[in-house]
Amino acid sequence: MNNFMNNFGNFQRDVGVASAAISMTTSYILGGLFILLGLICIWLGFMVTDTSSNFTCKTDDDCKLFEEKCNQNKKCFKPAQRHYIAGTIAGLVFILLAIVIIVFSKKSYELSKTNRGFAQLEAIAPEINLLDSIFKAK
Fold first, then answer.
1. Dihedral, CA atoms, 97, 107, 32, 25, nearest 10 degrees?
2. What is the pTM of this model?
3. CA nearest neighbour of 8 among 124, 115, 113, 128
4. Of these four, 42, 46, 81, 125, which has the most CB atoms within 10 Å of its CB?
5. Over the stretch 68-122, which tens digit does the pLDDT of each residue have?
C-alpha cells in the first residue's frame, strides 16, 4: 500500500511539473501579446487624432456647440490632439502586467520542479477544475 501511495505521489508530481510547463508556455504567449498590446497603446498615444466635425460655419459662434473653431475654409475644426499620458499609462500597465505574469509563471515552474508537494498541488488544481465542470454540467 505504501508503494502504491509513493507511486501515485510521483505520478502527481510529474503531472504537476507538466502542468506548470504548459502554464509557463501559455504565460509567455499571453505576456507577448500583452507587451505587443502595450506597445500599440503607447504608439497610439503619440498619434495625432483629428476629431473635427467639418460642419459649415461663418463664425466661431457657429462651432461652439462642438467646442471647435471656424477656419478659413468655413468649416468647424478642432486642433489636433495627442493622448500622450493615457496611451503611455495604458501601455505601461499592459507591459507591467505581462512581466508579472511571466515572472510568476516562471517561479511557479521552478518551484514545481524542486518541491514535490507544490508540484502535486499544481497537478490537483486542473483535476479539481475538471471535476467541478463535470458536476456543474448536470
1. -140
2. 0.69
3. 124
4. 42
5. 666 666 666 666 666 788 889 999 999 999 999 999 999 999 998 888 888 888 8
What is the dihedral sign for C-alpha 98, 100, 103, 105? negative
For residue 77, which phi and psi values (nearest 5 degrees)? Answer: -145, 155
Helix (H), strand (E), coil (C) string for 39-74: HHHHHHHCCCECCCCCCECCCHHHHHHHCCEECCCC
Taken in order 120, 123, 129, 132, is the CA torsion positive or negative? negative
User: Helix 2-45 vs helix 116-136: angle between axes, to the nearest 10 degrees?
Assistant: 80
- Assess contact for 58 and 70: CB atoms under 8 A: yes
H/E segment holding residue 76: strand 76-77
Q: Which of 111, 136, 102, 131 is nearest to 34 (CA)?
A: 102
The total number of residues shown for the chain amounts to: 138
Cα distance between residue 103 and residue 23, in whole Å: 12
